[in-house]
Amino acid sequence: MSAIVDLTLVELIDKIKKKDVSSKETTNAYIERCKKSKKLNSFITEDFDHALKKANAFDNNPNFEKKLPGIPIAVKDLFCTKDLRTTAGSKILNNFVPTYESTVTNNLWENGAILLGKLNCDEFAMGSSNETSFFGNVQSPIGENIVPGGSSGGSASALAAKLTPATIGTDTGGSIRQPASFTGTVGLKPTYGSCSRYGIVAFASSLDQAGPMTKDVKDCALMFEVMSSYDKKDSTSVDFERDNYLNKLKDSIKGKKIGIPKEYRVDGMSKEIDELWQKGIKIIKEAGADVIDISLPNTMYALPAYYIVAPAEASSNLARYDGVKYGFRSKGENLIDMYEKTRSEGFGDEVKRRILIGTYVLSSGYYDAYYLKAQKVRKLIKNDFDQAYKNVDAILTPSTPSSAFKIGEKTDDPVSMYLNDIFTVPINLAGLPAISIPAGIDAKGYPLGLQIIGKAFDEQNILNIAYTMEKHINFKNEIKSWWI
Amino acid sequence: MTKNKSEYLIKRNKNEYEVVIGLEVHAQVLSESKLFSDSPTKFGAEPNTQVSLVDAAFPGMLPVINEFCIKQAVKTGIGLNAKINKRSIFDRKNYFYADLPQGYQISQYKNPIVGEGSVILDLPSGEKVVGIERLHLEQDAGKSIHDIDPQNTLVDLNRSGVALMEIVSKPDLRSLDEVNAYVKKLRSIMRYLGTCDGNMQEGSLRADVNVSVRKKGDKKLGTRCEIKNVNSIKFMQMAIEYEANRQVDLIEDGGSVDQETRLFDTKKNQTRSMRSKEDAHDYRYFPDPDLLPLEFDDQFISNLKKEIPELPDVKKKRFIEKFNLSPYEANILVSDIETSKYFEEVIKNSDVKISTNWITGELFALLNEKNLEITQSPISSKNLSKLINLIKDGTISGKIAKSVFEIMADGDKDPQKIIDEKGLKQESDPKELEKLIDRVIKDNEGKVKEYKSGKDKLFGFFVGQAMKVSGGKANPQLVNEILKKKLK
């Protein structure tokens, strides 16, 4: 029998249901490994004692009808968890303990899962390498001093290092898919409105979406099924019939039409990425799908539009962190002085940079030229996808323009950091679902991902395509536990 | 706009200045819960006891529109004869303040829920139509309290998130009387609709006042100043008077008015500069991404139209046409919905003319004296109706009725019982009255002589004597008739 931590989530649930292992054994196995893996810095807050109590309680009175029976899960520290510190990776929320639970995490616990701890992330989910976290950068298990990606870097690191059987992240411009791609794991950004935003620390409200990060596609289908729900507490939550995604998962894509957008062949794209993409196309064809060349003509405007819309919303969303009601407060001579000191000391550089950009693009005299124009671009990008979906069922692209890079390599050059999101942001702007699956390795041996983009609320379809491709690719995440 | 009838001009040297006024009235929506949360809105609760996680802007908390508040705003729009916008957008108005937990106020900027409308003012000189520019919904902020703790400012978030309607008038008002009439009319309409209680002491109705002046006859509007957050009609009038004179003085001294936001100091009776146009906040308005555009259909509006009661203008017209009231009387009776209800209850079984006189006369005087609302009237509409019927059928005279009314005011007694107990029934028996009058004539032989020799004025004296002898109970009409006969 393979070790508990080597099992996929679905395999683990099977073992628990068969009583081959208990929740306590499982939880202990993960805690043991977490304790040996501090060097990765994946966790901001551990909740091990509490997790063990919960595991014991489960074992004493097990309910195997639950979808995640007694499964310990660590989550990104952007989800508010009742009575457990929630920091969003920021000093300004360093001491913040919510009295409430986010809807998405609540769905996990309602389905039998147990909170293992809170995972590191870029400060307020702003970053692509987990280097902006107040709690320090995160090591990727794929190699020492390599970034796990971001902003859900702690989630990707913990998952790939087998510190949690599955996890959840949030994706505003690629924050689930890029770290998944960097660590050889599966990450799904659901359709906007599919997972409730209630209780998730907001970055950019019109783009933020929670989603699963898992070892394989089956786990992903199950986690998504548990996370997604209609929620009246989120006005942008959409009331549609959620499927039984795992049960309906099938490895057949015969007759499906898959679009290949020419605009994603960007200047200076590495040969490795291009080869990976070709490999994906070949697999799809072999599986019986039709490959169709398509055009998404406004793709080149997506990144600049994103870096206007997201900071604009962020500048307003982060105004509430003012030292008045909760979180960090610095002493000041008067109200304005207190605000300035609190926010100067409480926020890191990247967050400040985005607040400045966002404030600027919303200012009178600049609003039309930036914010309004970006909104128009957003509409054009959405139209591009609508047009494309008249002819295809899904779209295949690389997840990222490169594999993982070294810690510190891009911190001095925000623009090159932002370019990491070039293949992922158009999907957030259009509100569509997309999944990243591991598809190969580069010359350095680092994982590379392919992204499958679907129609709105067509998660089942992209999960099926991902599942089919996964079987053909047969990717093995060769992680040597170098940090232990 | 109709032509101005109630002129208010400021004279300096040889110049006459017209004052142009526009109001932005902030009316608290009458609702059990807040605009985007389910916290209660009760006035006067202990500080910070009506605050949800949403109102206090905790991380990850999201606003959810309270549909009842939307209905209230639409109803108000209907009451203002305004265009209802089936699609409107909530925007964020960004600024930092300690009592603004989100760091922004959710308001409506470019796409308000209600567009242009109008309000009819009933002025002594006649009617005047005042244009409404728009009505939009927004959240109230909390309250900063500076005078409890010497070191710190305390914040009460009970009001944070309470729904307000901002009703913006066109710059159509020209005098203090018109401001008074406008605010009262708005208040009246909203109270009829049940969309705002209009209670100014509790801050349910406040206004930002825009004032500018221009030489009489000028077409172009002068530069305006905005006086923020004035919370009574009296203060509005005082602030306008001060501000208009200040602006005239500036112009007369060869200067010009700067566009700015000003505050009214109620103690000094002065306005003072708060911030200039250059220092104006850049609120960085943008659509709130947490809320979808607010959309409803014609059915939604027509359903609400069915709930709209008869409003003061229509009621006034009906009172004039159906009950033959003067416009003045009708105005008084319809200005407050409760008064109109009281009136209609009384006249259900009583004479309209007498009822009108008694309600606008004795009853209003009584309420005024005791500082009561009509809903707190010590005399019920039922008993007032009885009293009026007793006058009408001659059981008591108007004079006796006044004393009965006074007794009724002390505990809402049935007037018939009062009359029976005190023996106040009017004497209308001609035989009894003749006896009484014979006595008066006999006792005043000298005066009778004088009268008969042509001193006609003495007739009133005999009436008075007869009334006095009867203890006020004699039917004055019959006394008149009998006296005339006897003194021939």
How would you describe this structure in keywords?
heterodimer; A: alpha/beta; 11-stranded mixed sheet; B: 488 residues; alpha+beta; Arc Repressor Mutant, subunit A; 3 domains; 9-stranded mixed sheet; 3-stranded antiparallel sheet; 38% helix
Contiguous runs where pLDDT drops below 50 for at least 5 residues of chain A: none
In sequence order, what are the helices and strands of chain A, one letter per element? Answer: HHEHEHEHEHEEHEHEHHHHEHHEEH
Uncertain segments of chain B are 1-5
**Helical amount among residues of chain B, as a percent range?**
25-40%
Chain oligomer state: heterodimer
Strand percent estimate of chain B: 15-25%
Strand tally of chain B is 16
Structural domain tally of chain B: 3
Tally of helical segments of chain B: 15
Average the pLDDT over all residues of chain B and give the rounded result: 92
Name the overall outline of chain A: globular
State Rg of chain B: 30 Å
Shape annotation of chain B: elongated
Radius of gyration of chain A: 21 Å
Major β-sheet annotation of chain B: 9 strands, mixed
Report the end-to-end length of chain A measured between terminal Cα atoms: 22 Å
**How is the largest sheet of chain A built, in terms of strand order?**
1-3-2-4-6-5-10-11-9-7-8
User: Helical residue percent of chain A?
Assistant: 25-40%
What's the pLDDT, averaged over the residues of chain A?
96
Number of strands of chain A: 11
Describe the structure.
The complex is a heterodimer of chains A (484) and B (488). Chain A is an alpha/beta fold. Chain A has helices at residues 9-17, 23-35, 48-60, 103-110, 153-160, 177-183, 217-227, 271-286, 302-317, 335-346, 349-362, 368-388, 414-418, 425-430, 459-473, and strands at 43-46, 72-76, 114-119, 167-170, 186-189, 210-214, 257-261, 290-294, 394-398, 434-441, 447-454. The radius of gyration of chain A is 21 Å and the shape is globular. In chain A, 60% of the residues are buried. Chain B has 488 residues and is an alpha+beta fold. Chain B has helices at residues 67-79, 176-193, 233-252, 298-306, 312-323, 327-334, 337-347, 352-370, 381-392, 398-408, 415-422, 430-443, 445-452, 459-469, 476-486, and strands at 9-12, 15-28, 87-88, 91-94, 104-107, 117-123, 126-139, 143-145, 154-156, 163-169, 205-215, 225-230, 260-265, 270-276, 286-287, 294-295. In chain B, a hairpin with a 2-residue loop joins strand 1 (9-12) and strand 2. The radius of gyration of chain B is 30 Å and the shape is elongated. Residues 1-5 of chain B have low confidence and may be disordered. Chains A and B meet through helix 9 of A and loops of B.
